[in-house]
Design brief:
Blueprint: E1 2-8, H1 13-25, E2 30-37, H2 43-53, E3 56-61, H3 71-77, E4 92-95, E5 100-105, E6 110-115, H4 118-136, H5 150-164
Parallel strand pairs: 1-2, 1-3, 3-6
Antiparallel strand pairs: 4-5, 5-6
Helix pairs in contact: 1-4
């Protein structure tokens, strides 16, 4: 099965795309289309293009809040009601370490909202893929646990770059 990935106001696109693609391959899902949206006005048109082509679209979006910044605009566009705590009704909440993601389903499609934080993806992808496996009849099992310390990798990379630059 092919899926689309949309990076919306995201900054860690390379790490997230690598991790997401690696995880999805264990279920036979190919990230066939990848789009980047750096403007708030581009979210709906980019989603429309990907949803026209794919049964599943993963939206990886930035933000410093407890959930991806794409969540509220997508909930509003799809007319998903929110409860008294601001959580969407009839939408699967994906629980991460410090953030939440969401899986929105229609009869034959799904949108997976994920934060732009690789360490959060590790916690959310098993939940999302369990549901997608049932919905789309996917085969496969989760990959072995990834205990990569992404913050340390970024810090190490920045330090190496700084050292090479002589700073």
């Amino acid at each position: 099965m092919n899926a689309g990935i949309l990076f919306y106001l995201a900054r860690k696109t390379s790490l997230c795309q690598k991790q997401l693609s690696h995880y999805l391959q264990y279920y036979g899902v190919n990230a066939a289309s990848v789009k980047i949206c750096a403007k708030q006005t581009g979210l709906s048109p980019a989603m429309a293009v990907l949803l026209e082509k794919h049964p599943v679209v993963f939206v990886v979006s930035g933000g410093t809040e407890a959930r991806p910044c794409a969540a509220n605009p997508i909930f509003e566009t799809l007319h998903i009601p929110l409860d008294a705590h601001g959580e969407p009704k009839r939408v699967l909440r994906l629980t991460g370490r410090d953030m939440s993601g969401y899986l929105i389903e229609s009869l034959n499609q799904a949108i997976v909202l994920l934060p732009d934080h690789p360490e959060e993806l590790n916690a959310m992808l098993p939940q999302a893929c369990d549901r997608l496996k049932l919905k789309f009849g996917l085969h496969g099992e989760p990959p072995p646990e990834d205990d990569t310390d992404y913050k340390a990798l970024v810090a190490e990379s920045m330090e190496a770059h700084r050292f090479k630059a002589g700073r």
